[in-house]
Amino acid sequence: MTDPLLHIQRLRTSFKIKDDYYAAVDDVSLEVNKNEIVAIVGESGCGKSALAASITGLHNKERTKMDGRISFKNKDIANASINQLNQLRGSEIGMIFQDPLTALNPLMIIGEQIEETLMLHQKMSRQERKKRTVELLKEVGIPRAEQIYYQYPHQLSGGMRQRVVIAIAIANNPSLLIADEPTTALDVTIQSQILDLIRKLKDEMHAGIILITHDLGVVAEMADRVAVMYAGQIVEIAPVIELFDNPKHPYTRSLLQSVPSAFDKQERLYVIQGVVPPLPNLPREGCRFKSRIPWIPEEVHEKEPKMHEVGPGHFVRCTCYEDFHFIGEDGGMNHGAS
Amino acid sequence: MWTFTFRRVLIMIPQILLLSIVIFFLAKMMPGDALTGLIDPNIGPEAIEAQREKLGLNDPWHVQYWNWITNLFQGDLGQSFQHKLPVTEIINQRLWNTFWLSVLTLILTYLIAIPLGLISGRYNDTISDRIITGYTYIGFAAPVFIFALLMLFIFGFQLGWFPTGGSVTPGTVPGTWSFFLSKVYHMLLPALSMALITTVSTVQYLRSEIIDTKQKDFVLLARSKGVSETRIYRKHIFRNSLLPIAAFFGYEISGLIGGSIFIENIFSYPGIGQLFLSSLMQRDTSVVTALVLLFGIASILGTLISDLILSIVDPRIRMK
């Protein structure tokens, strides 16, 4: 078996709040292979964006502590210097951000913003750079690329700007693309166009893609594998079909339960009780999802929840999945599949 | 760009007209006129009344205003009774002194503010930031005239490094190199005293703007492109942080006018700030009116320059 493109092992990223460090990403291990889309899902504040930014060390160094290993193409990059990281960023690892309306420098023309990344990572003459930039704009589906080159971000729509952001991310043919909620700020038609574009890029460049989202529809449509995050940890990871057909962890099941269905019109949507606790108050011991399923007896949780393999490539954290049932259902009737 | 500039200049015409009306009425509302004081008491009231009639002081207001404004356009601002000279002549002598003093002050203000603001914003909450913000608080708290007196006392009188008054060494020939140097030498201490105080608000603006900008998404995107920190500050953060500073420029000019009144009096510098105060003390109405009008026009020009700078820096403003 070939080595994965990106291999994250037991990553913990902690942020400084006042004088203490709090882990926003805690004990996360994840592999991403070439030509694979791995989706990371979870509710707001679960640490998915913090995880994405950790990979290329984008956090403010003075307020962040990172432990664990991140190897990219068999090189450890968790402890890389800023210069080494700058060589990777934009060339080997491209990033797409959530809000295209704020992601571009308002005072720079589009062409200049794309050329900047070409200039930093490739030896090209001015003319070559411009030619490549116009090509990139066409590649991401921007019409009138020659004119758009000279325009400022405020002259473009949100969808167009997201295409520009994508053009920047893919300018140097990266082998890993990190897309942090690339469609959240866009309306549905534009969203599907952008997703089509990302899929096309995967097919053409054979890059590994990390797709961060909280939209399960996007996951079903795009991902090869899915990692579900809760409170800084991955609670379940599985191939996409397996996850939708056979979800194990109470959190995954609750998430899927709360998606409205077109066929089964319930009176009320399922709601997960409570909220994700803020970072300083996260439970550090035991099963982190415990407080949100209070009707499940204490004994079924593990003291120190570990990942359990329940199928090929399918892992679940904590033993509570075996005895989980939704409130109102009979616990005895709905025992785990194991 | 040119249509924007043209339209922006056009707007100034009604602004200046309105300003002149306000100033005219404020001057008229002051008690007394040119014939109330300093008149030989032996002259009978009939003669004074006849003179009033002759000078047009009994005309209705719009006729008086029209006479004043048409004279103004012909470059006639009236006579100064204190100096017994045409107002234009008196102002003209001093205007350039104040102009160059203000230019030097502005240059010094930005020479101080930009590096300090950059360091303070980039390395916020470090020792150097604390020292710089400490200085800005002192600057905010210290009144210009106290600080200027202190500077004059230390560097002018105690150490004797700078001249303590005037705008040029007597006897130097205008147009020569030594004349120019002497001018700059005389301006340096007043300009520095004013700049050190007025710069603090610009430092603070720049600091908070940089702290704000460096957390923006496009900076994160620039980092994700592999742009080095130095280049991020130079190409992405700095220019985006300059917008409020540019917007502040017009206000800065009105501040300079107010400041020049103190500074020129303290350093006995023959400019219009000094002239303004002495004319006010002497009730030299025609000079005061002319100067207030001049200050008003300077402020309007300041905002014009602000807007033009903004439109050069920010494409979003240019388009509208």
TrEMBL record, chain A:
Q: How does it sit in the membrane?
A: Peripheral membrane protein
Write one Gene Ontology MF term: ATP binding
Pfam families assigned? ABC_tran, oligo_HPY
* Record keywords: ATP-binding, Cell membrane, Membrane, Nucleotide-binding, Transport
Give compartment(s): Cell membrane
**Gene Ontology CC terms, in alphabetical order:** plasma membrane
Q: Where is the ABC transporter domain?
A: 6-256
Q: Which domain of life is it from?
A: Bacteria
Q: Which GO terms describe its biological process?
A: peptide transport
Matching CDD domains, A to Z?
Answer: ABC_NikE_OppD_transporters (cd03257)
In terms of NCBIfam families, this protein maps to:
oligo_HPY
Name the family: Belongs to the ABC transporter superfamily.
This protein is called Peptide/nickel transport system ATP-binding protein
- What species was this sequence derived from? Gracilibacillus ureilyticus
TrEMBL record, chain B:
Where does it live in the cell? Cell membrane
Membrane-spanning intervals of the chain: 9-27, 99-119, 140-164, 184-206, 241-267, 287-310
In this protein, which residues make up the domain named ABC transmembrane type-1? 95-306
Q: Where this protein primarily resides, as one coarse class?
A: membrane
Q: Which UniProt keywords apply?
A: Cell membrane, Membrane, Transmembrane, Transmembrane helix, Transport
Which Gene Ontology BP annotations are present?
A: transmembrane transport
Task: Spell out the Pfam families in the cross-references.
Answer: BPD_transp_1, BPD_transp_1_N
- SUPFAM superfamilies found in the cross-reference section: MetI-like (SSF161098)
A GO cellular component term found in this entry reads: plasma membrane
Domain of life assignment = Bacteria
Q: How does it sit in the membrane?
A: Multi-pass membrane protein
Q: What InterPro entries is this protein classified in?
A: BPD_transp_1_N, MetI-like, MetI-like_sf
Does the keyword section mention Kinase?
A: no
Family to which this protein belongs:
Belongs to the binding-protein-dependent transport system permease family.
Q: What is this protein called?
A: Peptide/nickel transport system permease protein
